[in-house]
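Example: ATP-dependent zinc metalloprotease FtsH 2.
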Amino acid sequence: VKSFNREMKKKKFQSIPESSVTKLSRSEIKQELVNAQRKHLEQMILPNVLEVEEVDPLFDRDSGDFSLRIKKRLEESEKLQKDLQDRIRGRMKKFGEEKLLVLKTPEGEVVKGFPEAEVKWMFGEKEVVVPKAIQLHLRHGWKKWQEEAKADLKQKLLEDVDFGKQYIAQRQEQVLLDRDRVVSKTWYNEDKDRWEMDPMAVPYAVSRKLIDSARIRHDYAVMYVALKGDDKEYYMDIKEYEMQFEKFGGFDALYLKMLACGIPTSVHLMWIPISELSLQQQFLLVTRVVSGAFNALRKTQVVSNAKDTVLERIKNVNDDIMMAVVFPVIEFIIPYQLRLRLGMAWPEEIDQSVGSTWYLQWQSEAEMNFRSRNSEDFQWFLWFLIRSFVYGYVLYHVFRFLKRKVPRLLGYGPFRRDPSVRKFWRVKSYFTYRKRRIKQKRRAGIDPIKTAFDRMKRVKNPPIPLKNFASIESMREEINEVVAFLQNPKAFQEMGARAPRGVLIVGERGTGKTSLALAIAAEARVPVVNVEAQELEAGLWVGQSAANVRELFQTARDLAPVIIFVEDFDLFAGVRGKFIHTKQQDHESFINQLLVELDGFEKQDGVVLMATTRNHKQIDEALRRPGRMDRIFHLQSPTEMERERILQNAAEETMDRELIDLVDWRKVSEKTSLLRPIELKLVPMALESSAFRSKFLDTDELLSYVSWFATFSHIVPSWLRKTKVVTTMGKMLVNHLGLNLTKEDLENVVDLMEPYGQISNGIELLNPPVDWTRETKYPHVVWAAGRALIALLIPNFDVVDNLWLEPNSWEGIGCTKITKVTSGGSASGNTESRSYLEKKLVFCFGSHIASQMLLPPGEENFLSSSEITQAQEIATRMVLQYGWGPDDSPAVYYATNAVSALSMGNHHEYEMAGKVEKIYDLAYEKAKGMLLKNRHVLEKITEELLEFEILTRKDLERLVHENGGIREKEPFFLSGTNYNEPLSRSFLDGGDSSETVLLSAPT
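Written out as structure tokens, the predicted fold is:
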């Protein structure tokens, strides 16, 4: 006790609160605190006795001896267990190799308090069995000891009255003390107007059975606790509790403990606000509500009577028009004999007979209806004209609308011409006119070289700065050399270094070839002369193109330093020696003159020829030799980090600065892997506009403000708009209109982004059924669930965003949104790696195997046919083109750019087909094993998708976690898997395709 008091004084710990709610004396409280401190430290030290040799001096000797005895018994038990295992291994190793398997205990054999999974110890075919009697003996022995201890205490309480009173007093005192400790961890929050409890006190209150009831609000992540004998509810933050007790099971462990203690615990499922729903969920909600309201309105008595009345009026008007106008006109135009043959007239002779047709029946009914209502007075004729005019007006506009919309639904054809074809002819006509116009200018004496140098400009602000280019670091040294030469050409001559003469920028469309040339010019601070190919081509006489080249470089030498920039260099600098025509011969002289000018750069100062092309192999080889255009800059598609940097730079120019930090640019860069740098610049502005479109606002009020902005936009100067006062007023107006964007709005937009060319939206159905029943949905649900689960189980693979059922879609009811991820080891740069292709091959069998597992035998459908075909194509490509066969042979048997194809014998072709079949079956076996181990998860996903018709990635992760899903781990490859024989029948012997084997459902 003295040692404890010294420790309390050192820590300056206040042992008694200022306002105590107890009525105990000071000495009693002090003694209780000493006992509580000792018990608390004993509970902390006992779990760590295996690592700690010495016990803190604060404890008494009995506690220390008890801890050491526990440690000693555990060490002896561990040694005995190890010796027993060694003896078993020594006796059983003669039966075969040792194996450890994890099996699930059957439901009828599960013992309460013991795990449902058991370890199966095998030596060859022999199994080491632990008798159930031992487990039951241990459990029932502990249970028997508990019952005996309770019975002894009960008997002692009944026999000794004084002991009973003393025991009850101690228990009451302990309960009050425990309650005071819990209450000391509560406080009143005046800002929130509620009582709150420290999360550290909740487990103690549960273990001491002080909690009367609890309410859990998952939407707010809080729990309200009510203590026994107290009418107040205490607020507890679940997130804070999860952080503090993460290593001890978190809130899930607390919830299970509360249920085990019999504490009434209710979970409140609250209404989800519309603002928390995604755009798709909001659309589906509005659609279903409107559809239900429309159907309910249509079935009302008033609408039903009005519908019948309107339809009857329309039928009467139609009959009147047919009897008064259409039928007489038909009888006048079509002869009687022809109408009789077509069944449009009754016979007039007795010997003639004709069967009743739908036309005659319609005509008879219309005539009876017309005569019953025709009064042949002025009022009837007046109303007949009015009704006929209204009927014709409506019918005219209906046919006009159909004439405009039906061709779009039918596609391109004789009723609607393809706009792309019309655009092609317009572009072709424009280029023809432009070429003819250039020739006319040349005949008029216009000098193309003078025109080019008149357009010479000095670039100060390039479209894309040099530092923002993708793959710029790999070309930094060569670019610096070109810039240094343009800034100081004489330095290269004095040092005797070889100056750069020509630069060739190679890249696909949209990678920024022209922007890179302008960025280099801006870095070097030299002018740029933009020369078009048509200006240097042949003109009126032979040899004019060579003269144009000479004049171009002569003028450039006079204005040095300068950059001569030519776009699409391969259009007029192609390979020589292929043509004999005079025009092509002049083209070759043009290239020869260009070679002469490039070789003569040693006498020139500060002139660099910079050209762009998409394929540098189409340029004449002589131009690409060292000393000429030997500087080649390859512009690749940007990587994920480079795309992220481009997006952030573009966001700083187009987005509000306060919104830039709210966007997860890494996630955006993952979804824009197929976009070019020019297209990436538009993404931030599109994100912001999409977030604004999701806002609910008053259109009339917004349009009124927009009209004011349009009126005064030209009056207010730009410098005034950037002031702090105007900016603050703008923010206030945005908040007033409800257009203020939050981080949640931008995250929703990013989650709904659809990567271009990387989404599979289901299966194409040519004739979808009208009524989607549960039996009709089930195959589609199995297809989508199989794809989603196999993608989740494969490590570092594509991300499953959503899967849903779309009965109104012509592309199929089952839809999956899977985003291709280029990071995380699945892909190398912008090319697919072997690991990714093997994962893709396994993924292709997910839906096929799921249908075999869950659909009845013989009910397999064609939904997975496209994926099976894709798997066959991937396996063939891996073996023949990439040399990635199952035997890891690096031989490549086929290449698209080969000069000729080598003939292979029958035996060699059979060998190649065998490798393709082997890797195909390896992937099938891998996917089959993965889904068999997770059959329960697959069934749960299928059930929830049938019930809710939509599942997100979080829902799938939850189902996998709750149902014990077994995921694969890296390294994930097929070559190392155990392969016995293909399950499919060999098509080498029978000449048939692989035959699938039905999966047997486990009993």
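Residues 102 and 119 are 5 Å apart (CA to CA).
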